[in-house]
Amino acid sequence: MAQSGQGQRANGSTPEQASAEIGRLAAVLEPIDLSPERRAALIDRYLAYANWLDHAARRAQRTHYALRMTALIGGILLPAVAGLDAATGGAALRWVTAGIGVVVGGTVALDGFLSARGRWLHYRSAAEALQAELWQYALLHGRLYEKAPSHAAAFPALATQCEHFIATEVAGYLADATQEKAPAAEQPTVASG
Question: What is the DSSP letter of 40?
Fold first, then answer.
């Protein structure tokens, strides 16, 4: 799911409410009657992975906001300090101006390098998708689970879905993270005609 501004998810909830939702999901999943092996997969793998994705999304969001806010504030201060420097001509102000410029450039470059926004949105959408699957299983709702007579009978479908989801999510993330972008000079151009 895409995020909206001010730390809220697309459904309007805050990151704290998202963690509470994981807690509610855990409370619903815990009493389900499963074998110890299946319970371990459900709680220690699938629910734990959803929780990890949720925390990773919040970490990436905080990183992105911290870097962007630093660049934004520095970008606002830079012309003001440069104007003071021009008016007074002090050496100290020249150093401050240069320092602010370096901080702004560094934070923008670091944000681009870390791709914090992309990671935030990736982790958030993955967390929401996995939580939705777990909720459908918990409620025995949805095309894969609604006809199952019990959670035990529906578990193989859940395991297949979750394992496929995890493998696809990890492979997609690794493909995005390791994809090298050609420098602008090497990128093909489209001839206009």
Answer: I
Task: Look at the block and give the residue holding tokens 């410029």.
Answer: 101
CB 86 within 8 A of CB 149: no
Q: Which residues of 68-107 are buried (b: 16+ CB within 10 A; e: fewer)?
A: eebbeebbeebeebbeebeeeeeeebeebbeebeebbeeb
Of 105, 52, 51, residue with least CA distance to 74: 105
CA distance 176 to 63: 19
The closest of 135, 183, 182 to 162, measured between CA atoms, is 135
User: pTM (2 decimals)?
Assistant: 0.77
> pLDDT tens, 58-72?
999 999 999 999 999
Three-state DSSP state, 5: coil
Find, among 22, 42, 34, the residue nearest to 162 by Cα: 42
Confidence of residue 175 (pLDDT cuts 50, 70, 90): confident
Confidence of residue 183 (pLDDT cuts 50, 70, 90): very low
Residue pair 111/81 in contact (Cβ under 8 Å)? The answer is no
